[in-house]
Automatic annotation (TrEMBL):
Amino-acid positions noted as binding substrate in the UniProt annotation, renumbered to this chain: 154-157, 209, 254-258, 262, 325
Gene3D superfamilies attached to this UniProt entry: Cytochrome c1, transmembrane anchor, C-terminal, NAD(P)-binding Rossmann-like Domain
Active-site positions on this chain: 265 (nucleophile)
Assigned EC number: 1.1.1.22
Lineage, opening ranks: Bacteria, Bacillati, Bacillota, Clostridia, Eubacteriales
SMART domains recorded: UDPG_MGDP_dh_C
The protein's annotated pathway: Nucleotide-sugar biosynthesis; UDP-alpha-D-glucuronate biosynthesis; UDP-alpha-D-glucuronate from UDP-alpha-D-glucose: step 1/1
Catalysed transformations (reactions): UDP-alpha-D-glucose + 2 NAD(+) + H2O = UDP-alpha-D-glucuronate + 2 NADH + 3 H(+)
Protein name, UniProt field: UDP-glucose 6-dehydrogenase
PANTHER family the UniProt entry points to: UDP-GLUCOSE 6-DEHYDROGENASE TUAD (PTHR43750:SF3)
Organism name: Anaerobacterium chartisolvens
Residues noted as binding NAD(+) in the record, renumbered to the chain: 30, 35, 85, 120, 157, 268, 332
Amino acid sequence: MNISIVGTGYVGLVTGTCFSELGANVVCMDTDEVKISKLKKGIIPIYEPGLTELVERNYPGRLRFTSLISDAVAHGDIIFISVDTPTLADNTSDLTNIYNAVRDIALCMTGYKVIVNKSTSPVGTGQSIKREIQSILKMQGKPFDFDMVSNPEFLREGNAVVDFMCPDRIVIGAESIKALEIIEELYARQAALGIPLVSTDIETAEMVKYASNAFLAAKISLMNEIANLCELCGSDAGIVSEAVGLDKRIGRHFLNPGPGFGGSCFPKDLRAMLGIAKDNGYTPKIIKSIIDVNEEQKVLMFRKIKKTVGRLKGKTVTVLGLSFKPGTDDIRESPSIAIIRKLLDGGAKVKVYDPQAMKNTQSQNPDLNVQYCQNTFSASIKTDCIVLATEWDQFVCLDFDHLKKLVRTPVFVDLRNVYNSDDVKKYGFSYTGVGRS
Ligand SMILES: NC(=O)c1ccc[n+]([C@@H]2O[C@H](COP(=O)([O-])OP(=O)(O)OC[C@H]3O[C@@H](n4cnc5c(N)ncnc54)[C@H](O)[C@@H]3O)[C@@H](O)[C@H]2O)c1
């Protein structure tokens, strides 16, 4: 099969690379020429475990990169759109990139194509894209047929390759049998593994993506709220979440108390849901609360650190982890960065270390006045508090013996509840977790 991917970011690059690994001929296109020229030199612009190896195996060969939309459209019988869809301040989705991509695609079309929208976008976007393409084709006097499909993406950064190859389900929203069969054939390898294909209409497929993210984010916010209550009542939120998660109806994922969710999806998609609801004259109470609890959680985590350290002015705080979760260099809406900003506002000096996300933090937050360090040890020299903000593997087995010799004050704040309080205390550190008194 010949596939083109328009928008070669986290989703597009993983999608294109994985399809090439599964045997398709893939062209990945992006308007970011720097990104494309790096990819052509074999430089992978994102950190995603396993991705580099897959790109190396398929490029050059079944995988190609281009910044020319004409090239991508000429190549692909199936054209995926995977451009970014940020949410604006008024909670509406900014679909500029989608419509730019759609217009570019339509102008280059010379025959039947299946256009697949993988970008997360409000219900109704698929139909609106269809109308846009129809009108461009009509204006140009091109009598071609095409089909519109919605195929939302559920991959998790940090686990994206595995998630793409072996997802929990594949959702296909299509209007024609022909398009449905083409996309089903594309995913035949995954279907053969027993992965359910849910085929539905375009509008329902679009909603599945938002509904899934709302459920997951709700679990996180609810658990954080319960953890805050545990802290006040003297219960241990770690054990509460473990026991609650053993109930099969609830499940154990997304129940670890912490600083709240971040990343490119949950915050953006939940805000977009508020926008979708407003457009339809509905006021969703739970979705609004999920967002509010998440925002408040970052403030509570800052207060937790402040309470432990005391007056921040003149103090140094070490923050371990900048990405919104381990396994990725993505810092979009990372709670760690929000907490660092509050520490800096409070007058603390902040030293940071992250195994993958420092470059992105520096380039995307040029105003963030922190000291970037080479490793955990250099970040901990003469510090008054070590904050574990993102649970990267290397922060899960810290050498507290050595750290004790480096710090000014042995204070450890574990925002991910990675450690047992007694295990840390035996090295002479004070320990503060989340949802534990
Ligand atoms: N990142 C995730 O974990 C994830 C998971 C599921 C769904 N999604 C959704 O997938 C979509 C893409 O997300 P992402 O994280 O990959 O975004 P991203 O910002 O990493 O990548 C988007 C890419 O699209 C390119 N682009 C923008 N306009 C373009 C155009 N007109 N033509 C060609 N390229 C263009 C950008 O240069 C960029 O490289 C979003 O809607 C997002 O909500 C993301």
